[in-house]
Amino acid sequence: MNPEYTNHEIQELVLSVLATADENLVVPIVQLGHPVLRQQAIEYTGQLEKPVLDQLLEAMRQTMYEAPGVGLAAPQIGIPLQIAVLEDLYPIPDSIAAEREREPLEYLEIFNPAYASISDREAVFYEGCLSFDGFQGVVTRPADITATYEDRAGQKHTREFSGWQARIVQHETDHLSGTVYVDKAETRSLISETELWRHESMDVATAKKVLNF
């Protein structure tokens, strides 16, 4: 059963997390096994005062950059609210971008998101998680989705995502329902990042042969 929080308790929890931030507003990322990662996050309905919300979002953004990662959900820093930040502007080789259907994703904040597949296409790739540090696993996900979400002002949005952007949105949205990518991964595909890089970022086809999944 998920704990219930009053608005005051949520704000105090957020302030306690922000109190752990370093001079760059980077806060600790919780790891798999922390109960908050397995809880249904609470719908954001304005529980936080604006200065606190603004500081939380900036801390999430800076923590994502520092990790580094392409997304961070509030539960990953111990806060059970349906909030996530996303950005994928890292330079990658053209060949990898083409294989992943990866287009740069500008910084995006999503509140109370949901997604649904809008095609029969699926994409199968390795993915990792800042809350399961040091490992990656193969996950099959819809390649084309429509997502609904709100921004920090409460404005509702509907937007379509494809390729790698769709994977990022799904991964972070899943966090808000207590789902971690390993729940959807091919278990035998799990590999330490040390081994993955040793094999020059082993592709899925090779991994299937080597790891027998």
TrEMBL record:
Instruction: Tell me the active site.
Output: E172
Annotated GO biological processes are: translation
Q: What class of enzyme is it?
A: hydrolase
Which keywords annotate this record?
Hydrolase, Iron, Metal-binding, Protein biosynthesis
Protein residues bound to Fe cation: C129, H171, H175
Query: From which domain of life does this come?
Result: Bacteria
- Catalysed conversion reaction: N-terminal N-formyl-L-methionyl-[peptide] + H2O = N-terminal L-methionyl-[peptide] + formate
Cofactors, names only: Fe(2+)
**Co-factor remark:** Binds 1 Fe(2+) ion.
Q: Which Gene3D superfamilies match?
A: Peptide deformylase (3.90.45.10)
- Do you know which Pfam families this protein is assigned to? Pep_deformylase
Keyword check for Metal-binding: yes
EC numbers for this chain = 3.5.1.88
| InterPro entries, A to Z | Peptide_deformylase, Peptide_deformylase_sf
Gene Ontology molecular functions:
metal ion binding; peptide deformylase activity
Quick check: keyword Protein biosynthesis in the entry?
A: yes
PANTHER family found in the cross-reference section: PEPTIDE DEFORMYLASE, PEPTIDE DEFORMYLASE, MITOCHONDRIAL
Entry similarity comment: Belongs to the polypeptide deformylase family.
Question: What does the UniProt record say this protein does?
Answer: Removes the formyl group from the N-terminal Met of newly synthesized proteins. Requires at least a dipeptide for an efficient rate of reaction. N-terminal L-methionine is a prerequisite for activity but the enzyme has broad specificity at other positions.
For this entry, the protein name equals Peptide deformylase
Q: What is the lineage of its organism?
A: Bacteria, Bacillati, Actinomycetota, Actinomycetes, Micrococcales
Name of the encoding gene = def
